[in-house]
Amino acid sequence: RNGNRMQDVLPEEDFFVAVTDAQKFDVGGPIPTPDPIGAGPVPLYDPGGVTLSDPTFADAAAGSLVLLLGYPNTTRELTTSVGRVLGDSEAAQAVAFLAGRGDPEGAILYDAGVEMVIEGAAGAGMSGGPVVDDAGRLVGVLVRASGTYDGVQYVRAVRMSHVAERLGAAVDALGPDLKAALSAYLER
User: Fold this and answer.
1) Are residues 132 and 67 in contact, defined by beta-carbon separation less than 8 angstroms?
2) Given Cys at both, which of 30, 50, 72, 178 links 125, Cβ 3.0 to 4.6 Å?
3) In terms of Cα–Cα distance, which of 41, 40, 65 is closest to 51?
4) What is the chain's pLDDT, residue by residue, as a tens digit (188 residues)?
């Protein structure tokens, strides 16, 4: 799908979930094969205990302000911006506006159950970065952004409720040993 710079990948397909643990690998040479993930405490840096709150993710309400974080290619440094989550009709109108401008984001229909559209700012390279609400909960994952028109840019993020639903279905299909090893990483 990357023959056209990923332009035809839909938001519902534009995420993946990876589990990392305390294994470390040397940089360079062949890519090592990690050991299987073992059960036990998850090594996280979380001085505020946010990962221990219930729940750690949420749905963002239309009109709410969210924090976008990522590492744009231009700076390769952590960058943040604040954006406003658009309601469903506003998001559809934004996509129609982008279509009228010939922006590639206008060619992808808005899917309210999968994504949110945010009036905000994001640069290439920020994909995969978190979208966080004012309570510190993860509400989405940045996946795409439009060009900027009259100072306005539209950013697409996959909703965490969609990611959690897909992740739950994948975990339910696993065998008992792998399920047990992953349980420390998941809310249930």
Assistant:
1) yes
2) 72
3) 41
4) 445 555 556 666 665 566 656 666 666 667 677 776 666 666 667 777 777 777 778 999 999 999 999 998 888 888 899 999 999 999 999 999 999 999 999 999 999 999 999 999 998 889 889 999 998 889 999 999 999 999 999 999 999 999 888 888 888 888 888 887 777 667 65
Full-model pTM: 0.77
46: left (phi over 0), alpha (psi -120 to 50) or beta: beta
| DSSP symbols for the chain | -GGGTTTT--GGGS-------S----SSSSPPPPPPPPSS------TT-GGGSS-SB-PPPTT-EEEEEE--TTT-S-EEEEEEEPPHHHHHHHHHHHHHHT-GGGGS---TTTEEEEEE---TT-TT-EEE-TTS-EEEEEEEEEEEETTEEEEEEEEHHHHHHHHHHHHHTS-HHHHHHHGGG---
Whether residue 167 contacts residue 125, with contact meaning beta carbons closer than 8 Å, is answered with no
Contact partners, residue 79, CB within 8 Å, separation at least 6 = 69, 70, 71, 72, 123, 126
